[in-house]
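Sample intake sheet
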Amino acid sequence: MISRLRPLVAPLLRFYFRPSRLRVRLGEILIALVLVELGARWWLGLGTPPLYLPHPTIEYLLRPDQDIQRFGKHILVNHWAMRSQDFPARKTDPSEYRVLVVGDSIVNGTAVIDHAALATTRLGPLLAADLGRPVQVANISAGSWGPGNWLAYLRSYGLFDADLVLLVLSSHDAIDTPGYGPLDAKQYPVQAPILALEEGIHRYLERFVPAPLRIWQPPPGPPPPPPTEAELQALHTQALADLRALHELVQGSGAGFRALLHATQPELTAGLASAATAGDPGRAELKAFFAELGVPLHDLQPFWAAAIADGRKVYTDFIHLSAEGQSLLTELLRTEVRIDYNARSTDPP
């Protein structure tokens, strides 16, 4: 059968793959790749991920001075590695009121939340209207930051003449300590890829390829063993020591200090101490710790539960806030500021 078809097929193959035709095909493929690259870069924003810097004490932080568009969202990082507009380190107007909002990816919003939709961006104009004075709100955060990262950042950069520090934390932060290991290039890239297609394939499409077929990757090693009780206790002790030192740093500056305890969806639906971390000491322990410090702590678990019952879309996944969730967080932060502002305004000299 093959021998009968060969005289018919051979001329067609020679015609299709003759040098002139082959050059045309290669040119068409090249043009298609260029168009896809340009579309991925300018339409999706691939090729320009938010970049990070390793740091000897903070562990890592967003690279300062970034202004990018990604997946239709505006990502702005100022000179102080904050997701905020630039502002001077010290007040230039004695009437200015400054709020530092410190946290992890909940406050940061990640690349799926536009700069304008962040709770911290919304908060500034509202407070300026409430207080009748200039207001600067700073977003000091990065994904997976915990007590040790927050403490190291404020020790390195200072408190920027803050009048109030609002800490947004979760129950897993009770055992969160910096690891100082190599950064995961996919989650915390330190340099932009050469091609947008390169990022699209390796960071997003690759996950849909079954692990055994990823021949370009070395085989994964065995998963690390779960932490022992002694290791968990050591993490817990260090995290609380970092939170205590953070409180002392803020208290020594004369700024107010208040905390908000975020809740994951599993915590709302099942009352779990954590969605992902076995051995997490849970919310009650953090509440007791902040009560011991004398720091007001607002548990957001009932608030998020009520918002969801009211039909609000609070989350994008099991833990992160949607744009609507960020809007709700704005009001929670606003309330905390007004409580502290009014209390400090009526305190006797």
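Comment: The chain is about 45% helix and 15% strand. Residues 206 and 213 are 10 Å apart (CA to CA).
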